[in-house]
């Protein structure tokens, strides 16, 4: 007899389940997606012990009749596609017909459901893939799925689950992503019996974002929309002052399906280059609408990753457009004085959008005062009483009216200058408050942009040196310098090779003082040698500009400036495309609004 055996169905089911169901959050994802596919207007998720002991999803979708409920538990049983062609135009979140089978193979599973055509519902209990009981039940139209003791029959998988808090955080992330995609649906999440998230239905994406994000972010969302015949992108990018230490604040959707798209993350990173501190990631919510046949969603068992036709083209248009909106809609970070803001300052904000419950609790107080557009619900839209927790307060927060208009765009312009503080900061009056400019950071930004400009438009103003400088480098430095000679000459350096690693410098960029030239070049040769500027030409240009700008210390911190010098600095800053940060992403200006002052002086 040969060595090869066909595995029995029970094992096959468990192996297959392992692909779809990795952890509690995968169960939540599959169940909530099913509810959304069933047209639910309200979805309630309850979890206990990070979903390890219980996950329960209740919806008011279309439900199922007896026959469908039984069939739904079979592998590759789906109501969503019937042919291969269907798969290329699929509009639902699910279509593989695997989720319910997989979940019921690795947990204690109950489904209770009723459709509008029947007055009694069906309840089926499955344990480890085996139907235990099936019968009638009384319930409203809709579906409840209860999943207990996940992986009770896969001890190894269970052992590898993370701590309750971590699994819960993943669940929050899943619920948040789906609730952004379906902002017209109401979502609730209960954690160990306590209401943790409560998102009433919204008319607009923006309002759902307000429900989810910290209140200070509201003024930091810049709307984005890109159209290109075959596809459209719409959504928001967060201004550079709201960033995260991971990509957890990036929400991408392809045809309303939450997905990870690396090329979009790269596009964001690149668009924000020079406005973000190291290790920070932009925040964004981006919806790509594209003909379904141009997307392959079947790449990944969780459908978390997708392939998109012409992804490169989409990416480069994104970069162009995001840079543009950052330039026109950017504004300086605000200096917050009042308690209200101090409490919820970014420093205290945990760095995951997948936040533990406590934070949502704290925030929900603030949320209560955020005006959002809400649907007025008809009587039909109530959640079935089968919810673990009483649903009567589901619409507590309903009925708030009015939408806040986003803060008007701010334009930087020269106002009344009060002078300089500690030889480092310039104080200037602006329309609605006081602008504090970090002269060093501002100057770095100016030089950076002037260098970039000189790369794309010939060269920058250069000053001949009366007596040429002679500089000797080591072998590596001079090799680097040689390589960058053409670019350095565009910046305004006149550099001649004398051989033997020696160079004579007979001209300098006008933004550098003569005595700073040799140190700047030496530093440049060193840092350019280390972090060898690779990648596309634009990126190389940006890196070089950043290095030189950083080294140019014409205006040092702690340097007294005359009124004329201050004025010139501000005027040059106004011409910058992105005046609000230095090229390393630190703020160059901060604004203290009159409103904040008034609040602090208790005048409001
Ligand atoms: P898929 O979503 O890929 O079709 P599933 O195993 O997740 O596969 O679900 C199987 C079928 O069960 C679905 O196609 C749908 O017809 C039905 N179903 C599952 N969940 C629900 C629900 N909450 N409400 C109504 N029908 C559901
Ligand atoms: Mg499904």
Main traits of this protein?
single chain; 604 residues; alpha+beta; Heat Shock Protein 90; Ribosomal Protein S5, domain 2; formyl-coa transferase, domain 3; 8-stranded mixed sheet; 5-stranded mixed sheet; binds adenosine-5'-diphosphate; binds magnesium ion
CATH superfamily of the largest domain: Histidine kinase-like ATPase, C-terminal domain
CATH topology of the largest domain: Heat Shock Protein 90
Overall number of structural domains? 4
Q: What spatial form do the alpha-carbon principal axes imply?
A: elongated
Strand content: 15-25%
Strand order of the largest sheet: 5-4-3-6-2-1-7-8
**Per CATH, which architecture of the largest domain?**
2-Layer Sandwich
Descriptive report:
This protein has 604 residues and is α+β, with helices and mostly antiparallel strands. It folds into four domains: 9-203, 2-Layer Sandwich (Heat Shock Protein 90), CATH 3.30.565.10; 214-325, Ribosomal Protein S5, domain 2, CATH 3.30.230; 359-443 and 559-600, formyl-coa transferase, domain 3; 462-510 and 512-551, MutL, C-terminal domain, regulatory subdomain (Ribosomal Protein S8, Chain: A, domain 1). The strands form six sheets. An eight-stranded mixed sheet has the order 5-4-3-6-2-1-7-8. Helix 1 packs across helix 5 (99-105), helix 9 (262-271) packs parallel to helix 10 and helix 13 crosses helix 17. The longest helix is centred in the middle third of the chain and has 19 residues, at 311-329. The radius of gyration is 30 Å and the shape is elongated. The structure holds adenosine-5'-diphosphate and magnesium ion. Magnesium ion (MG) binds at residues 30, 33-34, 94, 99.
């Amino acid at each position: 007899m040969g060595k090869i055996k066909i595995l029995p169905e029970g094992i096959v089911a468990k192996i297959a389940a392992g692909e779809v169901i990795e952890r509690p959050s995968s169960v939540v994802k599959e169940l909530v997606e099913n509810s959304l596919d069933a047209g639910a207007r309200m979805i309630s998720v309850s979890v206990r012990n990070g979903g390890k002991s219980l996950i329960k999803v209740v919806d008011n979708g279309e439900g199922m009749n007896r026959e469908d409920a039984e069939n739904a538990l079979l592998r590759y049983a789906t109501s969503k596609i019937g042919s291969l062609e269907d798969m290329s135009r699929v509009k639902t979140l699910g279509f593989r017909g695997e989720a319910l089978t997989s979940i019921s193979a690795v947990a204690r599973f109950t489904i209770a459901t009723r459709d509008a055509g029947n007055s009694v519902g069906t309840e089926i209990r499955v344990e480890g893939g085996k139907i235990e009981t099936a019968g009638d039940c009384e319930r409203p139209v809709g579906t409840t799925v209860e999943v207990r003791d996940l992986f009770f029959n896969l001890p190894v998988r269970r052992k590898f689950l993370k701590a309750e808090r971590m699994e819960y955080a993943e669940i929050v992330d899943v619920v948040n992503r789906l609730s952004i995609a379906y902002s017209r649906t109401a979502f609730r999440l209960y954690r160990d019996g306590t209401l943790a998230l409560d998102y009433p239905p919204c008319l607009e994406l923006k309002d759902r974002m307000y429900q989810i994000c910290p209140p200070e972010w509201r003024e930091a969302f810049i709307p984005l929309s890109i159209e290109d015949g075959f596809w459209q992108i719409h959504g928001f990018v967060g201004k550079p002052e709201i960033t995260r230490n991971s990509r957890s604040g990036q929400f991408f959707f392809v045809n309303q399906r939450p997905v990870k798209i690396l090329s979009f993350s790269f596009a964001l990173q690149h668009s924000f280059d020079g406005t973000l501190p190291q290790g920070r990631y932009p925040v964004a919510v981006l919806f790509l609408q594209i003909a379904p046949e141009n997307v392959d969603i079947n790449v990944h068992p969780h459908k978390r990753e997708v392939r998109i036709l012409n992804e490169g083209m989409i990416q480069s248009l994104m970069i162009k457009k995001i840079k543009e909106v950052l330039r026109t809609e950017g504004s300086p970070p605000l200096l917050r004085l009042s308690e209200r803001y101090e409490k919820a300052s970014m420093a205290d904000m945990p760095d995951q959008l997948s936040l533990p419950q406590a934070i949502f609790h704290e925030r929900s107080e603030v949320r209560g005062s955020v005006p959002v557009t809400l649907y007025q619900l008809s009587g039909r839209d109530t959640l079935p009483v089968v919810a673990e927790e009483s649903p009567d307060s589901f619409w507590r927060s309903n009925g708030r009216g009015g939408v806040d208009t986003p803060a008007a765009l701010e334009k930087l312009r020269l106002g009344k200058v009060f002078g300089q503080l500690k030889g480092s900061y310039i104080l200037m009056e602006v329309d609605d408050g006081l602008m504090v400019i970090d002269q060093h950071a501002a100057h770095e930004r100016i030089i950076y942009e002037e260098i970039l400009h000189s790369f794309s438009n010939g060269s920058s103003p250069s000053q001949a040196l009366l007596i040429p400088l002679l500089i000797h480098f080591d072998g590596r430095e001079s090799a680097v310098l040689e390589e960058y000679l053409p670019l350095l000459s565009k910046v305004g350096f006149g550099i001649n090779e004398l051989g033997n690693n020696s160079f004579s410098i007979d001209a300098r960029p006008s933004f550098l003082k003569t005595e700073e030239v040799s140190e700047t070049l030496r530093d440049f040769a060193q840092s350019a040698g280390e972090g060898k500027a690779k990648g596309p030409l634009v990126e190389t240009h940006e890196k070089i500009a950043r290095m030189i700008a950083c080294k140019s210390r014409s205006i040092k911190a702690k340097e007294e400036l005359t009124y004329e010098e201050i004025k010139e600095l501000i005027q040059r800053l106004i011409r910058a495309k992105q005046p609000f940060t230095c090229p390393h992403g630190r703020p160059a200006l901060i604004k203290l609004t009159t409103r904040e002052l008034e609040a602090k002086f208790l005048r409001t």
